[in-house]
Amino acid sequence: PPANETLEKNVQEWAAKNGVKVKIDFFTFDTMSVKYTSGIETGALPDVGEMESFDAIRFASMGKLTEVADLLKTISSADGGLLPNLDLGITFHGKIYGIPHYQLVNLLYCRKDLLDKIGARVPQTWQELSDTATKIHNAGYMTYPIGEAWTYQSDGYNAWQGVLYSYGASFADKEGNFKPDFNQPKAREAIKWATNIYIGKPRLTPPDCLAWKGYSNNEAWLRGEIGFTWNGPSIWYRLVAENHPLKNKTILALTPAGPEGLRVGIPELMVLGVFKTTKYPKLAKSLIKYLLSKEPHEKFIKSAYGQVSPAYYNFTKMDFWKENPNQLNCMEIGKYTGLPGYPGPVTPAAASVVASFIDMDMLQSIITGHLSMDEAIKIADKKKEEIYRVLPH
């Protein structure tokens, strides 16, 4: 992607200015955690590593990352301050262990032509989403309008977290302690919505949805098979780059709100960390500071087709976001961020709950009829409680 090329150019520009040589490794989301875990075991860690916020907290709890509060203060002051809740993804036991780089946001994709055919607006709540999809189905315009897979991939789990948190429920409280779903009526409402799009009448999701991979909804959208899905701007990038026929029929909308108007967007917060094994801590911090300075970071944002959403207020003011409504929403949703363990901090326990896909098992067991809702919630709660008993929170 162009953004990777821009990032590499920014790094090499910094290297030239500082008279040093830099080796850069890129790897996918699927292999990122494995690469770092392997590096911890072998001692072969980079000087600076980019990672998701829950990995930053996990590695901080293992004593592998350098505390960087002073660096964050300098960068945040220059860039207008952090957007809401992002500090929760870099703080462990009151100390700062990472520098937010950007957010890989997720939005609700909507087919404008289908909305126009039934005279509907962009859905503002999850319930309005399923109601609108039902109207599209009943009108015969699309059989299975919602492409949302509750499976073992980040798109599905992040979408589910957005539903759960926006309904006012969570598996953790503001202090980061475990909170069972079984005792939360709002959690049950969220679970009912998430399962009804599969087992309600009419069914709103494709029959093979529970077999989908992380890319499956992207491909289904590009084939014109679904009318709504929750995804990052990667689909939009494809539509623009290929001048796809659906480009002008696609709306990227803010994540729907819950029944009381609470809107929680679930991004992947990308964090830059300095590993304690580095022999060059001053240079490592200098590189991070440069990457988040005005000119290099604006170039990076512009090269990403909305896939890089700001972590700092000053970058939300770029004219780039005003070029079209879809790009604008890629930035706006970053102001509604919730991270694993919302409304509390990201903790090793919260990160493990998300990484274990416990709620995906819960939703699937209800959808397939293997368990009742009560049985599925109890099993999920028990698994989460065990994680919170063992890991820091």
Automatic annotation (TrEMBL):
Alphabetically ordered keywords of this record? Signal, Transport
Pfam families listed in its UniProt record = SBP_bac_1 (PF01547)
Q: Which domain of life is it from?
A: Bacteria
**Entry keyword annotation includes Endoplasmic reticulum:** no
User: Zinc among the record's keywords?
Assistant: no
User: Which Gene3D superfamilies does the annotation name?
Assistant: Periplasmic binding protein-like II (3.40.190.10)
Family under the similarity heading: Belongs to the bacterial solute-binding protein 1 family.
* Name this polypeptide is given: Extracellular solute-binding protein
